[in-house]
Amino acid sequence: MIIRQIVYNGEYYVSEREILPVKKGELLVKPLSVYIGLLENSYIRYTYPSKYPIVPGSFGIVRILEEPYSNKGYSGKIAVVNPITSNGILGLDIDGILGSYATIREENIYKLVDENDPYLSLIPLIEHGIFLGKHSHGRTLIIGCNILAYIIAKFFDENKKHNYALLCYDNRRVLRRINGRVYVNLGELDPYYDSIVILDSMFGLIHKVLTHIYFNNIIISVFSFINFLPLKLSETYNVLYTMKTDRESPHMVEKIISSLKKDIKIIRVNDISKTIGLLPPRGLGAVISFHS
């Protein structure tokens, strides 16, 4: 059996091997769909010190083939993959799932599902965005232009929240479909926001925002990769840095997936090498679906 994987080491290429070791605590899986977009862009923007060479692919749908070190009945099941592990982030710190076969840890299983719907790859991100949205109170400013910004904005729209805005430079065409205002200049911002949601690692921009406007709450996604905030010692803030998700809103998840289908397409391939032309991802990304 030849195992083919996409590898990034300054550029993307196809790697082939005959053996894929499965370590204790790991599962051998067959990737069915992989979302590329949010984390893969961190390679190009150098916003995260990834360990190269690395196999991308952090979010997806897999069929579990073998569980050699456990007996939990996973074999044959279809699972949604979440990238957060105790050893780092899948696709950034440890090899991801963009290949013909892959290994994941048991903790990467976000949930088991009954079908291979490629858009289910987005569930961990959507439920993370919903969690962030639920903890953003009052007038809210979202810093970022990625899929998480879109998800939070759609969550606000569905809940009839109108007092929010986004500050971003990319993907403005997509984000203009939301109800909130989209700003590109600091001078357009209001002088005060109750909550600021940080989804991007652009430290220079974040520094300017946090030192030029007034606010009470900061909500930071783990996927922003921000590890330093320029806060005034004379002020008091509520800071939430989180990787948590909200699993109690299945109807909201369905609505957001329906909205995302307009901008995130499923690209079906039968050869892993054809995914190289899709990297780095553009816009909000895409879902790659593998078929024989």
UniProtKB/TrEMBL annotation:
InterPro entries: GroES-like_sf. It comes from the Archaea. This is Zinc-binding alcohol dehydrogenase family protein. It comes from Staphylothermus marinus (strain ATCC 43588 / DSM 3639 / JCM 9404 / F1).
